[in-house]
Structure formats: C-alpha cells, structure tokens
Amino acid sequence: MSQTAEQLVTPEIIADAMSYREYRTLIDDLLDQGKTTGSNHSEAMLNYTKMNVQRMRRLDKQLELTSSLKKQIQSVDEDWVWLVLTEAWCGDAAQNIPGIAKMAEQNDHIELKFILRDEHLDIMDEYLTNGGRSIPKLICFDADTLEEIGTWGPRPGEFQQKAMEWKDDPEISKKEWAKKLHKWYADDKGKTLQADFETLIAQWS
Q1: Which domains are delineated in the chain?
Q2: What sign does the dihedral 41-47-53-56 (CA atoms) show?
Q3: Nearest Cα to 92, choosing from 188, 26, 169, 171?
Q4: Among 59, 62, 106, 120, which residue's CB has the most CB atoms within a 10 Å radius?
Q5: For residue 132, what are the β-bridge partners?
Q6: DSSP secondary structure letters along 114-125
C-alpha cells in the first residue's frame, strides 16, 4: 500500500463506515425512495439492486461456513478491521459480502465495515484491479495502527481471470456475461470464497 492510502484510511473513515446491518438498511431505505447507491438511479440500476437484495437475503440464510474456516477465524487473536469498498448495484458485491459478514461474525477481534466506492474514489484508486475500480474490495487493517495487513477482491480465486476472459470475448454479450457470472456463483456456493480466506487468514495472522 502506498503512503497515500495509509493517510487516506483514517480512524474517522473507519468510525463513519457502516456495519453490515447498516449497509443493508441503507440499501432498503434507498430502494423505498426509488434510488440505489451512487448517482445513477436508472431503472436498470434499481433492478440490479433489487436482485442483489434477494441474493444477499438468500445467502444470509443458506450459506454455511466450513468447520475448518470457522476454526481458523476463531483462532485470530489480533484486532483487525475489514474495510470493504462496495455499491448496492454491484452483483459481485452481493454474491460475496454475506459470506464475508458470516466470517467476521465468528470472531469479535474482526470488525467489518463498509464504505461506498463512489463516495471514496481516492481510497478506491489505491486498490485498482488491472487499472479498474472493481468491487467489492476488502482491505484488512491492524485495528490499532491502521497499517494494511492484506487485501481481497473483487472476485474469489481464479474466477476473476475467468470472468475477465468472458468479458473480453466478443461473442459473449453483456447480458450473457452477467448470466454466466451469477451461474458460477450459484454453482460454487461460496466454496472458492471460503478457500481464499482460509489461505489469506493464515498469511495475515
């Protein structure tokens, strides 16, 4: 992480960031007003957001963490902040955030916080993926010093590469790409995300 990023993620940013419950409530409240996060409140963006709420609700209920991952998370004895850059309309965020929230719930040493990408582009621009502002992006900080420990995102494991190959394929339309993306998540059932975090938590601890 650059010196700039260390200066940008301040205790004030962390204090003002949302919990998972607050993030979910914000999305519901915005939808009630016919809005989503960010500045684009088009019908398409609202539809993405509505689908994402359904995805998150389903994952909140159905996703189960493996016993080995639970054990590993519960063994963390340092205080961490997991800061996630996200937006309500982002399908990848909806597919991964509920699993991340379940992980953070396993250990009081891990504080999970959310900020909106488009309100914090200065921070986002320190964590680009192949030059793009891809979300969700999780940054793990030491809670006391706010020194960066590691990052994850925007997609699990090797799926990021596969998704980019599909996106660059001229024969796959944007609509078809989104369909393939969400089918992969449905088939994977959070396994690759959990495998990522088993590896990362071992490295971060």
Answers
A1: 3-204 (3.40.30.10)
A2: negative
A3: 188
A4: 59
A5: 129
A6: EEEGGG-HHHHT
Number of C-beta neighbours around residue 137 at 10 A: 22
What is the residue-wise DSSP string for 83-141? Answer: EEEE-TT-HHHHHHHHHHHHHHHT-TTEEEEEEEGGG-HHHHTTS-BTTB--S-EEEEE
Q: In the structure, what pLDDT confidence band is assigned to residue 69 with cuts at 50, 70 and 90?
A: very high
pLDDT digits (tens, 9 = 90+) for 85-103: 999 999 999 999 999 999 9
**Closest to 132 in 3D by CA, of 149, 117, 113:** 117
Q: How many whole angstroms separate alpha carbon 74 and alpha carbon 61?
A: 21
pTM: 0.95
